Amino acid sequence: MPPELSVVLAVVTAPFAVAGVTPLLIRSLGEKTGYAGAAVAAFCFALLGTQYGSEGTVELAWIPSLEVALRFYVDGWALLFALLASGIGALVFLYSPAYMHGESGLARYYAALLAFMGSIIGIALAADLIAIFLFWELTSLCSFVLIGFHTDDASSQYAARMAMLVTVGGGLFVLVGFLLLAFVAGDIVGPGTSAFDLAAMLDRPDEMQTALREAGLFVPVLGLLAVGAATKSAQVPLHFWLPNAMAAPTPVSAFLHSATMVKVGVYFVGRVRPLFASLEWVVLFATLGLATMTICALLAVAATDIKELLAYSTASHLGLMIAGFGFTSILGAETGVFHLFNHALFKAALFLIAGIIAHETGTRRLDELGGLRHDLPVTAFLTAIVALSMGGIPPFSGFYSKELLFEATVEASHHHDLGPLDWLYPAVAVFGSIFTVLYSLRFLALFFGRQPDSLDHVHRPPVILLVSPAVLAALTAVVSIDPELAVRAIVQAGVDATAVDPGAHEMHVGLPTSYSPAVGMSAVAIGSGVLAYPFYDSIHRSIRSIPRAVPPIGANWWYDAITERLTDDGAWLASRVHNGLLRTYATWTLTATCVLALAGFVATDAAVPPVGFDPASLTGLDVPIAAALVLSLAVVAGLAVVTADSHVAGILTLSILGFMIAIFYILASAPDLALTQLVVETLVLVIFLLVVEEIPEYYEVSLGRVARDAALSVLVGATAFITVLLTTDARPAGESAIARYYTEHAVPEGGGQNIVNVILVDFRSFDTLGELVVIAVAAISILTLIVMRSRGDESSVAIEDAEGGSANESHESHETRGESE
Amino acid sequence: MSAFVLALVVGALFALGTFLLLRRDLIRVVWGLAIVSQAANVYLLAMGGIELGGFETVPILAGHGEGVPETTDPVVQALVLTAIVIGFGMTAFALVLSYRVYEEHDTLDASELGDRE
């Protein structure tokens, strides 16, 4: 069944449309806007539900000339992700009004949250590389606004900037990867299909891979996309932005961590998996994922804040999914898809529970919390389900997907020759899982043990806050009891879409009934975790001591070092090139222009004399005496301007220069230019003299810079000299077609014999109108500068008259030209 | 006519204008601006191919209807004409701005003005 374009478009655009009108909703609904958001999310969820079981591509033309379209591809994997985003989105919106009660800036909050959800649904469904990139960066922008929600809080700003820098930076890697991919795909997907069509590429994975390898682009594209996915999905060593992102309001964290932002990378890795499945893929993603899983599990144990613990655990679980997709076997796809599904449910619930705890106790510190089961019994019950699922304890849902990972690690060596990685992968997976069990138990322990004395006023949460986590916990419970139900409903379809050889396998999960290596691994991981739990505090302390002893081991340290260095260097550079002095700006601009122009000539070999170049033509003997005289007089006048020691002398010599140029125009067969130049020069002379009369002489005082200025002037002059030589030389001989056109059409169409005038007032009259506007604006500005001043005196009035008159005259000079035809 | 001589003149004018642009006296900066725009105009005209001559080459047609002669490039002339007028507006504005700056700050020293920011 093919999907329907109208439905898909409605799902993608509805969140953005409502985001646009959020300020109006806030005005009429106030804090209840969250429920409207929930309705939008539920609407998207329901519409997506109608597409259940459909598969295919629909598209809406966007930039046809570049073959870019709003192309959407619906299959099991896309639907799974889009349904999670909208479903959990609805629960987060439902939770928000109570949690955000009394906060300001709700319009921004809900608008960004809606746009965020829309972008995620967009990524899930988009099949055009350009559209994917667009939505990809939109999620980064929305998350920036959401993480930085508390705009006056420094840590919030820091976290938002960090998330933006890392994820947008990663997006740029993705863009380059996409362009390379499209470059190769152009020949494969064939004419009639856009080179940006990801769905078409996924139809021919083997041909794509062969073509990429032949072009030598397989590893570069894989690496670029991996960097992008790793930044989004917080893989080591780019994981550090995710724990900082807990500065966001808790509903945002729940959304960001469970079903949206960080899953985008995983989703995308699953999406392109069939294209890239190979030994390189296994080594890259399995290693990346397992390293992240282990390191972030360790960091989660070291966390002191409940949200920090959950944030590191998210990164760790993302590592698990990436590792799952990293293994090319069908088990790998099952791990990735099923764990993404399970994690979305339990992690959203856990964050919402963390929000309830923070809301009701006023603290998020692990060591200040405990024994909460007395005050929050319902929450405690919900936490038990989801925390044990997170820990992968049977029979909770996380157990099943983790079992699949263990099986995939064990079986990896059957598919590829991995050398020592063969046993290292299972070992690392078990080692990381021990810590997963540890921090899951630690989170659950918030509700048990003795209640610290500082916690004396724990309120019962309002029912509305409990609804969302309860729904999620109930779903987790259902998956725990009957995992096959979830598999049949949605997971199998996702597995089919991400599998390397689709349709070959039917997925089965359940409690193990006999011994297998994976069962043994689970037993070791859970057993060690439970046994090590009594020593949690000492493990916690020893992990914490490592980054304190060696700061550069933390990725955050590198981020801080690099950004601080860049900021300092930027400030230093600005003080050099942007110091408020005119001459500094002129120096940098002119030097840069000259260097770029000369470098351009050198790079294109333009400076090499062409074949048949006659050096004799450079001797300049063919210059008529009159022109030579006029031009040399102009240069001499220019020299006199430079060396003039009074303003009056300078102005007079400047005028000589201008009049010489005017005479040159006469010699060069340009009578109109000469006329205009004569008028303009006369006016300039008058204005200069009028102004200078009011200004005392100013003599250059510092002579120290003359040499430097002269050097720069010579550089500029030399560049101009070379440019003129090269460009006039490169000009094709004879009349240009455009000049011919104007010459021939001047009389029949313009009705005038002076071609220049006809061009100005007829063919290009809008240009002339623009020019007149410039002159008029200059005249008005001059008037304003002189007249609108409290300290006006007689002389300024005189100048005003001269200016007003001159502006008018220049208009008139145009008119006379027009009339002279 | 020889591109070499033209290039030499344009280069010299650009160099002189640049030197003036870097002065501390604002009035001299305005002169520099004026010289640089003159040089740019000559360069632009040179791009059209300069024909020294008289009646034959001037882009004005002698009469209606007859064969259309080949003249110097009228397009660059139109462009330069516009540039001259705009350059005039710019020079006048820069000059009056300098004058106003002098009235406000009692100095025309660009360095001193920069330090006040």
From TrEMBL, chain A:
The keyword tRNA processing does not apply. One of its GO terms (biological process) is monoatomic ion transport. Pfam families: MbhD (PF13244), MbhE (PF20501), Proton_antipo_M (PF00361), Proton_antipo_N (PF00662). Residues 705-798 form the MrpA C-terminal/MbhE domain. The chain crosses the membrane at residues 6-26, 33-52, 72-95, 107-127, 133-151, 163-185, 211-231, 281-302, 309-331, 337-358, 378-396, 423-449, 461-481, 515-536, 585-603, 623-642, 649-668, 674-695, 707-726, 769-788. Residues 63-110 form the NADH-Ubiquinone oxidoreductase (complex I) chain 5 N-terminal domain. It is found in: Cell membrane. Residues 809-821 have a biased composition (Basic and acidic residues). Residues 797-821 are annotated as: Disordered. It comes from the Archaea. Keywords: Antiport, Cell membrane, Ion transport, Membrane, Transmembrane, Transmembrane helix, Transport, Ubiquinone. GO terms for molecular function: antiporter activity. It is a multi-pass membrane protein. GO terms for cellular component: plasma membrane. Residues 633-696 form the MrpA C-terminal/MbhD domain. Residues 126-414 form the NADH:quinone oxidoreductase/Mrp antiporter transmembrane domain. PANTHER family: NA(+)/H(+) ANTIPORTER SUBUNIT, NA(+)_H(+) ANTIPORTER SUBUNIT A. This is NADH/Ubiquinone/plastoquinone. It comes from Natrialba aegyptia DSM 13077.
Automatic annotation (TrEMBL), chain B:
Its main location: membrane. It is found in: Cell membrane. Keywords: Cell membrane, Membrane, Transmembrane, Transmembrane helix, Ubiquinone. The chain crosses the membrane at residues 6-22, 29-55, 75-97. It is a multi-pass membrane protein. One of its GO terms (cellular component) is plasma membrane. InterPro entries: CPA3_antiporter_subunitC, NUOK/Mnh_C1-like. It holds the Pfam family Oxidored_q2. Signal peptide: none annotated. This is NADH-ubiquinone oxidoreductase chain 4L. It comes from Natrialba aegyptia DSM 13077.
